[in-house]
Amino acid sequence: MDARLLDILVCPLCKANLEYRKAESELVCKPCKLAFPVRDDIPVMLEDAARPLGEGEL
Predict the structure, then answer these.
(1) Which of these, 25, 29, 38, lies nearest to 10 by C-alpha position?
(2) In 3-state terms, what secondary structure has residue 6?
(3) Exposed (0-12), middle (13-18) or buried (19+): which is 25, by Cβ within 10 Å?
(4) From first to last of its 58 residues, what are the pLDDT tens digits of the chain?
(5) Dist. CA 14–CA 23, nearest whole Å
(6) Rounded Cα–Cα distance for residues 52 and 30 (Å)
(7) What is the pLDDT at residue 3?
(8) Spatial distance between the Cα atoms of 52 and 1, rounded to a whole number of angstroms
(9) What CATH fold (topology level) applies to the domain 3-57?
(10) Cβ–Cβ under 8 Å, residues 54 and 35
(11) Are 41 and 1 in contact (CB under 8 A)?
(12) How many Å separate Cα 44 from the centre of its chain?
């Protein structure tokens, strides 16, 4: 994932910064407790595509 893209991407719901988790291929929003998938180096920033994070994943 391009570092410049990570600098400008924010959560589509709350506009918080996102954390990239390379091993899981996800962008994580801690305030919303959601993980957005990254498919073929393209972030899928749709609420319907995000998965809720469990307590141990924050």
Answers:
(1) 29
(2) helix
(3) middle
(4) 788 988 999 999 999 999 999 999 999 999 999 999 999 989 999 999 999 999 889 8
(5) 24
(6) 10
(7) 83
(8) 22
(9) N-terminal domain of TfIIb (2.20.25)
(10) no
(11) yes
(12) 8
Place of tokens 């959560």: 11
DSSP secondary structure code for residue 4 in this structure: H
Tokens 């390379």 sit at which residue? Answer: 22
Rounded-to-integer distance, Cα 12 and Cα 24, Å: 20
Burial 35-47 (b: 16+ CB within 10 A, else e): bbbbeeeebebee
* Whole-number pLDDT of residue 2: 82
Global pTM reads 0.92
